[in-house]
Each structure stands twice: as structure tokens, then as C-alpha cells.
Design brief:
heterodimer, A: Pyruvate Kinase, Chain: A, domain 1, 6-stranded mixed beta sheet, two-stranded antiparallel ribbon, 9 strands, B: ATP Synthase, domain 1, 4-stranded antiparallel beta sheet, 2 helices
Chain lengths: 362, 142
Amino acid sequence: MANVLDLRRRIRSVKNTRQITKAMKMVAAAKLRRAQERALAARPYAKMITSVLESLTRRVDIFDEDTGNLRHPLFITREEKRILLIVISGDKGFAGAFNANILKTAFQFIAGNTDKEIDVEAVGRKARDLMRRRYPVAVYSERTESDQMGDNPHIFKTRERKAPVEVTGDHPGMLLKLEQSRVFEMAQNIIARYIHEEIDAAYIVYNEFKSVIAQRLVVEKLLPLMTIGIPQITGAVEQTEAERERAAEAALSAGILIEAADTAEADEEAKKFGTAQVDYIYEQPSEELFAGLIPQYITSMLYHAMTESVAAEQAARMTAMDSATNNASDMIDAYTLLMNRVRQAAITKEIIEIVSGAAAAQ
Amino acid sequence: MADETNQLRVRLVTPERIFFDHAAVAVELPAKNGYFEVLYGHAPLVAELGAGDVIIHGGEGAESVQRYNVSWGFTEVLGDRVTILASDALKPEEIDVPRANEQLARGHKEWDQAGDSADAYTEALRVISEAEAKIASAAEKH
């Protein structure tokens, strides 16, 4: 049995750990609050883009009469042979099962599409590290000469596919400082790949975050676009009841609001954008307006996924660190009890020794 | 004529937040094919904005002029209301001029290397016009 000194050392060590996890929890809570604010502040723009696009599709004759589809390359559906999968994970660990769950969902998606060629685009360090370890990085060979179809720049860069699943890109530091311009570049890259038929569909795996107790892991279809304003969720893993309770407890102790902020009024306001019942003057041809807005719409979808993922990561970290702090407290209690028992046993033993020694002396 | 009651409600919304929400007398907007000014009672209009400055007159006090550089935007004009969606909004003093110059150089390089590709020219043109708008906007202040 351990002696008192050992136990005392052990307790001190656990106390130090508790101090650290507690600090990490508070930091995560502060970051979560900021992430939530950012997600909230980004809503009006996204809503406005969506509503003006929606109204343009209703007003404007951009439908193809033959197929009934919108006359825009991103609305064209093709047979899904090559898929782009965007995986949004966290940058750091210590967030419970957050990263593991996202990657598990991504691997399940890949496992369910073995007959297709999949390009993986990783956002967040954890996803990047694991995806790169598992799958080869795409190799491009560049030719500078011009073909007969010299008006297309993408033929200069040819890709040699070696494996069915390849990593085509990662975005280090993207989540660290979420910038619209970088997300826009990424969106443009994806759009170009879709238009040049390098990919037939784009999916995104991320953790949706409405509030601490309303989150789920979703697989959302980004491209081709179907109906503006309606996300195409193809798979979702809801929070379990136990997880939700745990998250609520952690949020409560860190002073985070559990319910999602009320945005009904702001949303209502944003919905009015570009949808008034008047005849607008279109400064540019409506097709042009539509085509100019689409990249922004894709950007806002990606940006939305990333802001929510960042908030979810911080929430997961906060919950995990709250659990760790509680566990440390339990451990300290248990060790303190044990230490007292050991000490008492030692005292009792000493008394017995003295008493029996005295008895023997008589 | 514009008086105290005939004011536009101007909102400038960026992806990050609502940047500006205030009453104003007039707004100058950089549409894709040239600047135009909006006063109270303008006919309903939607337009895509290119790189340039959004200039808000009389936002805070009658004489005030606020200038924001945007590189892409979309605007809805109603009689009493102007809503501007902009991909970013910078005050002239916030513009990083050396970086804009770099961007301009990059744009010209892209232009030279575009070859026969129409897409590459469009992209180069966008980069150049963004950079030029930024530089012009920054120069306006000093």
C-alpha cells in the first residue's frame, strides 16, 4: 500500500492537472462565445444572398425550357463518378470525440462510395494530418504548350490519378483566422472544378451548431445546386441524450447560453432583401446578376459550415475539459479519503506497537 | 429635395457583420458598369457592384462623408432604403497600400501570362481592378 507521502504527491499532481483543465475550459468557453457571436453576425449576409437569389430564380427567365433546370452550370446534374469531399475538422485535440466523429463520418462516406473516385479537401489540421497519412496526395503534371482547344486554361495542367481516393488540397490555418477572402478563393476553386467537369458532385462533412444542445454532424451536398436556400443534407448524426445533458451542464457552469440566440427578427428583415413586390430595374442583365451571386452563395455556405464547425469544436472542448475537471475533483476526493485511511492505519499501527511494547515490558 | 424626413436608410452588410446601419442623404455606388448615386425616392433597382468606393453622404451629420472600399458587392435600392451587400468594406486609412501594389503587380503578371484563355483574362482583370480601386481609394484620403 502506498504511503502518505506518495498519496500527497499524487493529489498535488492531480490538483495541478485540474487547474489546467479548468483553465482550458474557461478559454474554450470564451472562444465559443466569440465563435457564436461571429456565426450570428454572419447570418444577415448569408440570408440576404439567399433571399435575393431565390427571388431572382422566381422572377427571371433563366430556366431552360427543355429540361426545366436553371440555366447555370452549377445546376447541371451529372452521374456522380467523381466526388469532392470537403472535411472540416478542428485544428487541435483535447476536444473529446469531436475530431474522431467527423473523421469517422468522412471515412464512412468514403467506404460507402468505393466505386467512385473521391477527391478529399481537408480543412483543419486534424483532418489534414489523418487524410494525408491515409491517402496519397494528388499529383499534377504541368504542360506549357497549347492544344487545339487553346482557350481552356485547365488543359495545361493534367492530373494523373493513382488511387481512387486522393487528397487534392488542404487549407492550413483557415479556421484559425476565418477570412471571407480565403473562403471565397476556395469556393471559386471548387466551382471551377465543377464547371470543368473535374468533379460531378461536392459534399461537405461538418459539425452543425445551432446551440450547445442543438448540434449534429452532417453530410451536406454542396454541388450541384438544386433549390436555393434549402440545404441538401444527405446524412446526419444527432447528439445523444447523454451528450446533450453533459454539454448543457458544462455550458451552464461556464456561463454560456444554452438556447440559440433569437434571430427571428433579423432573419425576417434579411428575407426582405431583393424580394419587394415591385418591378426592379436590373442594372445588369439578370443572368449576369445571377451568375455573379452564385459564387457568393457557395462562399457563404462554406463560411457558414466553417463558423459553425469552429463553434462546435470549442463547445466540444469546453465539455471535454469540464468532464476532465470533474473527474480530477472526484479523483482528488478518492485519494484524500485513501490518504486519510492510510494515515489512520499508520497511527493505529503505531499505537498498537506502543501498547503491545508496554504490555511486553510489564 | 432631401430634408430631415426624406432620408435613406443605408445598410452596408459584410459576411462578417452588419457594417453600417444609419440614415443618410445620398449614396454613391460603384456598379459593375460605372458609378451611380442614389437619393431619396429612387426607383427600385438591383445591381451588382464592382471594385470601388461606396460613398455615403450625410450619414452622421449633414457634412459627413464616409467612404468604404469594396471589392465586390450587390445592392438593392428601394425608395427609402439602400441595402448593400459587400464582400468586404475597408475605410481608406485601413487599406494596405504596399499590399495593393503587390496585388496590382500580380494582376499584370497574370494578364501577361493569360495566353489564349478568356477566363484567365477575366480573373486578371478582376485582380487589377480591385487593386486599382484600393490604391485610388487610399490616395483619396491623403
